[in-house]
């Protein structure tokens, strides 16, 4: 258990929050399929990404971890070997789902598992299209839950997959499996999810066409480049300090080198509409992604808004911290079309609402989202993170404005995505 109470302090200063989790995973995965040298700088050393790294070492990729950079001497997409052991992906949905796509194209047997939370997350969303492409995938409860067993094939079948969900993990699993066939492969989603896989595949030389909500693999499906990737700061991690500054009197923070890919910046649109005082500057391009510095100042006069539709995938991981922001907005904030939150590390609709109420917030569950009514003076109290890093960070930030301390049962889960969270908090927490 951890107890926090930062009321009376402000957030000020500059931070380079940790590197992007989605891009770090993909850099190791694609680097391991590459025929060429991949150098990854600013790799995120969080538990999730280290689990991806370990899995590819287990799969025989030649990975030299030099602390300041990771060098992968890739031998091509057919060079992976049957793993001697079960691949344990810990807490990481991105790892297990994207790796399943890659293993579908490997002619060997592998078993993938994870922690108690990952083993409850649905895998049929990827197993269904990957089986259509020719992979054999087994799992608990009729093939739905990990541990998963995958027996892949060197040559898969093509697919034109109409994904029922706007999920980058589903889209990426199919595209990665699509590297192991010459037949047509496309994925169409109901709304655009993060597009890091498409961008990075292109950077490695693969032909990828994007036509509205459809992504199609073209003729060349070989990764054959010597490449250097510098991973930008993760907006999903920066978001905790952005909102922390917006709700705490006298605060002003600058988050540096944050990814501003439009499939990730829904939170900035929310800031705009709520009236948060923020600014995006120093826009640059880095390894095929745009990055920028983001300044956020204390914003006492924000208002509630409705959030839904195609904006949801662009801010999906930020909904717990946006809900905290909404407690300080005048009027109602209604979040809809976010039923995906129910199958994240925790049921984030339930755990966000339950914990907001525990600290004195006015929040209500909807089947596909939540309603938060503001503006409330938060009291503080007991919070249960349910092993969910984003819930633990959201309610640590809440303690900047609660009257009494916030007690959180488990904050160790934060190392899933942000191992240096408390050190960074110390850096910008000032009198
Ligand atoms: O592809 C990715 O890197 C991710 C996609 C999202 O999940 P879904 O694809 O399940 O929506 C997101 O919530 C997760 O944190 C990372
Ligand atoms: C949902 C998340 O990650 P994953 O699906 O990779 O576990 C997250 O980081 O909030």
UniProtKB/TrEMBL annotation:
EC numbers for this chain: 2.5.1.19
Catalytic activity: 3-phosphoshikimate + phosphoenolpyruvate = 5-O-(1-carboxyvinyl)-3-phosphoshikimate + phosphate
Top EC group: transferase
Protein residues bound to 3-phosphoshikimate: 21-22, 26, 167, 169, 317, 344
Catalytic residues in the record: 317
Annotated GO biological process: amino acid biosynthetic process; aromatic amino acid family biosynthetic process; chorismate biosynthetic process
Keywords for the protein's UniProt record, in alphabetical order: Amino-acid biosynthesis, Aromatic amino acid biosynthesis, Cytoplasm, Transferase
Family: Belongs to the EPSP synthase family.
Protein's recorded name: 3-phosphoshikimate 1-carboxyvinyltransferase
All residue ranges annotated as the Enolpyruvate transferase domain in the record: 8-425
Gene name, Swiss-Prot/TrEMBL: aroA
Taxonomy, superkingdom: Bacteria
Organism: Balnearium lithotrophicum
Pathway connected to this protein: Metabolic intermediate biosynthesis; chorismate biosynthesis; chorismate from D-erythrose 4-phosphate and phosphoenolpyruvate: step 6/7
GO CC list: cytoplasm
GO molecular function, one term: 3-phosphoshikimate 1-carboxyvinyltransferase activity
Cellular compartment(s): Cytoplasm
Oligomeric and partner information: Monomer.
Entry function: Catalyzes the transfer of the enolpyruvyl moiety of phosphoenolpyruvate (PEP) to the 5-hydroxyl of shikimate-3-phosphate (S3P) to produce enolpyruvyl shikimate-3-phosphate and inorganic phosphate.
Predominant cellular place of this UniProt entry's protein: cytoplasm
UniProt-annotated binding residues for phosphoenolpyruvate: 21, 93, 121, 169, 348, 390
